Amino acid sequence: MNKKFYITTPIYYPSGTFHIGHCYTTVIADAIARYKRENGYDVFFLTGTDEHGIKIQKKAEEKGITPKEYVDAIVADTKELWTALGITYDRFIRTTDDDHVLTVQNIFKKLYDQGDIYKGEYKGKYCTPCESFWTESQLVDGKCPDCGREVYEITEEAYFLKLSKYQKQLEEYLETHPDFIEPISRKNEMINNFIKPGLEDLCVSRTSFNWGVPVSFDEKHVVYVWIDALSNYISALGYLNGNDDLFKKFWPADLHIVGKEIVRFHTIIWPIMLMALNLPLPKKVFGHGWLVIDGGKISKSSNNYKDPREYINEYGVDAVRYFLLREVPFGSDGNFTEEALIARTNGDLANVLGNLVNRTIGMCKKYFDGVVPKQNELNDLDNELIKYALSVPSIVGENVDKLDIPAALEAIIELYRKCNKYIDETLPWVLAKEESKERLETVIYNLLACIKHGAVALKPFLPTTFESIFEQLNISDEDISKFDTLKPGTVLNEAKPLFARIQKDV
Ligand code: MSP
Question: Best of 12, 19, 103, 337 to mutate for ligand 1, by most ligand atoms within 8 A of CB?
Fold first, then answer.
């Protein structure tokens, strides 16, 4: 039986055009999903949209359309963006999907019937833009701790989830499963700031708006956002909504990748919901940092973003993917600027990789009419390069397992840097003049084989670049366990620049 891997992104609020910050999580999840598929895993990669709530209802009202019409248009646009970025999700779940709605209603009813959800009265502070309830102690200067805006006192009849009942069980779980929350700093923050001070029961229904999943046994209530949203991870697999084959196969999730501000919901509310449903918990929740501009999170409200497709159209999809995967130390915040995107593209992709491929294919054309030469006797310099090339797949694997994608990519680019150095050391044009044909054959062969080897390692991260390299090398063999699968005698195709140097002042 195949090994399985279930990976998710958060489901996004379709409340406007998506920005590059949203692409960050999705591209990382996509690269990991592709990597696992390449390595023989049966992968289920889930992403989607979180479509309910008062914010969406209000936006639709402003436009004079129904909430569903409003979200449909954004969802269509989002899917186009994901296609442009090469995102290979297995399902795009929408919280308005019928099967999801059924799951949410069934979960709510089950928890109510077993006494984990009860009816009470909600009094508290509510932040409308964030759709979040806060206790007095969580407010910062009397304002929303997430966005800093005004909060409002609200009193209404509501259903509550008994978080308090599961506090002890959750604490024990976190103690006995040290890898459940990563990075470790976020785990400590959850325990010390949220769990240890004591969990209050959570308001899980609203009566003040109706754009949501109706509580099946009390229709004036709609299910409030987090039970609705978090359930997507199991509704998408058919839990309590019909055919649960996928659920049986893929649950528990191997990895939920989420932004740092929603780690709290994924490591407190979600585990408690699952404990109450008597289901196993996901293996890992990874809380990544934000892409920031000038220290502030990129956001729709601050108008500091462009549609990511502008960058894709201008610099190419793999330049954008590479930047997102390489630039930010995973787990920390990272700065996004167009200058930084250009610098990364020019530095690693144009100067190191593009230049190497171009030069090597050019030399193969010039000295061998574009026919891959044979590899003759190897010297120490060759062996050193080949040894590193052969170690790249395992370095990449170890780092993907640690979710350190920047380090995985660095190991591949390092191979290409070493190749450029190898050219400087072996001086193929001198070998050609000296008529050291056998040596020249070996050098060009080693360079082409390294390019191929690195391209296979790059495939999950930069799929378009992989394809272009394979097309230029006129090969299809992807065996990365061996170095010499590139067949002498293969006739190379025309060289095509992979990444042109970007000359632009921004
Ligand atoms: N709908 C909820 C998630 C529910 S999951 C059961 C939500 N949606 S969101 O659209 O606001 O954010 C989705 C994800 O995008 C979050 O993980 C958030 O951290 C991430 N990002 C939004 N802006 C970001 C950056 N500027 N940088 C990196 N990630 C960012 O929260």
Answer: 12
